[in-house]
Amino acid sequence: MTLCQRCNKREANYIVGGRKLCEICARDEIVKRIRKEIHNSRMFNYKENVAILSPNNMDQIAELLTHIIGKACYTCNLKIDKVSLHLDYQDINEYIWRLIMEAKNLKDYSVKVLPFPSNFYLAYLLYSLTMKKYSYLNYVTSYKTLNDGTKIFIPLYSIPLSELSAFGLINEINFNDDIFNSIFSWVNTQLAENYELFHTFITSTSLFNYPKCKSCDAFIESGEYCALCKRTLASPSPPY
Ligand SMILES: [Zn+2]
Ligand SMILES: [Zn+2]
């Protein structure tokens, strides 16, 4: 048996940040990493209301995040709610857009958490290169504040599902977008062993730089708003 490289006591069953760790140390490393992101974001105040956005296909990850964020910031007494969402969408860009609109809409919460792990973003990078549409590469980051003041926190952006599995077996995640779905499952099966890749690809996303939508912060080619926001703003009673 391989011993944990941190405690040197228990069996190492997980690789977190390139080190072979036991379950307890792996969980602790992830909680510590998220504690650091919470601190760096400067978004969390004492007793803050935090919404974990939970689209139905990512409910398990959202549930896990509720637990991890509570643990990572146990002295802040955060009020953390998982907000379940059923999203209608044509493709993965609309899926992300709808989540952002829900985040903007949840006025009772001061921080809105998106549940995307780095597997999602690596798949999205490959997808966007295939489709030549880079809308939400701008969201491969741990936190951002939108023009209307909406604070978005994305603590798992550099944490792959393989690391998260230290908290329990992660169920398969499916999306209603066949092309994205096949890239996502390819990333999860064929690339899963390339631990480094799940961190290093993030640097490549910073090479993309375009004008941004004034409402959802998506990359756009020109103008002020992305097509989805434009359509919504033009409707007689905008839902968002
Ligand atoms: Zn250990
Ligand atoms: Zn937009």
What does this structure look like?
Helices cover 40% and strands 12% of the residues. It has 240 residues and is an alpha/beta fold. It has a single domain, classed as Rossmann fold, CATH 3.40.50. The chain is globular. The site of one zinc ion has 8 residues, from helix 8.
What keywords describe this structure?
globular; single chain; 40% helix; 240 residues; 5-stranded mixed β-sheet; two-stranded antiparallel ribbon; 7 strands; Rossmann fold; alpha/beta; binds zinc ion
- By CATH reckoning, the class would read Alpha Beta
> In what order do the strands lie side by side in the largest sheet?
4-3-5-7-6
Which H/E pattern describes the elements?
A: EEHEHEHEHEEHHHH
Percent helix, as a range, is 25-40%
The total of helices stands at 8
Judging by the overall fold, what is the CATH architecture?
3-Layer(aba) Sandwich
What's the multimeric state? single chain
- Number of domain units: 1
Give the CATH topology.
Answer: Rossmann fold
Strand proportion, as a percent range, falls in 5-15%
pLDDT averaged over residues? 94
Shape: globular
Ligand list: zinc ion
